[in-house]
């Protein structure tokens, strides 16, 4: 979804910065970036992290900078293809993997800069959760999109994300139904998620699956999927959401 949203916004003459903050980073490939496997995530740039925080990843240190300079990083480390600029963030370390570390300090400062200070469409691809956001950055999020498939586990995850979002006062949540095979799938999601606001429903299309497996860009793999995502973009720009009963 993020690759299609980014492409459609760019085709609509918006300046777009796509952020891959998913540990399983594959946004560059789905956007069709050449040599996408060569893009190094920010979290793996040890020299940069040491330069900006004062501590090299993996080293034990009592102090390091919690607000490192990051305003120049988008221009230095983003790559561009077909009108979409891309930054690959890498994995945030979570509780249990050690204390708050310089990698996290740099990534959190960078996310704050991107959301609060950039004058462009910023689209961030994250794993299920809100780990990259805080109360301060949540206020700058126009819409948090939760992608839900017609399954109990996926619906339960959406409820969990909504509760996590409430903890940081993130109120603007839209839902996109994905891999919808029938009206029954659509109705099942709506009935099982009262109070959620739906931006749209993306149909299941084998052409998307085949393009993904082949490593091809998802853009134009399916015209009916593209049309639905175009409608979703229109609802984001003019928020006339479908609110469930």
Automatic annotation (TrEMBL):
Q: Name one Pfam family in it.
A: CbiA
Q: Which GO terms describe its biological process?
A: negative regulation of cell division
Q: Which GO terms describe its cellular component?
A: cytoplasmic side of plasma membrane; cytosol
The UniProt entry, under CDD domains, shows:
CooC1
| Residue stretches spanning the membrane | none
What Gene Ontology molecular function terms does this protein carry?
ATP binding; ATP hydrolysis activity
The record places domain CobQ/CobB/MinD/ParA nucleotide binding at: 4-215
Entry keyword set: ATP-binding, Nucleotide-binding
Full protein name: CobQ/CobB/MinD/ParA nucleotide binding domain-containing protein
Organism listed in the record: marine sediment metagenome
* Biological classification of the source: unclassified sequences, metagenomes, ecological metagenomes
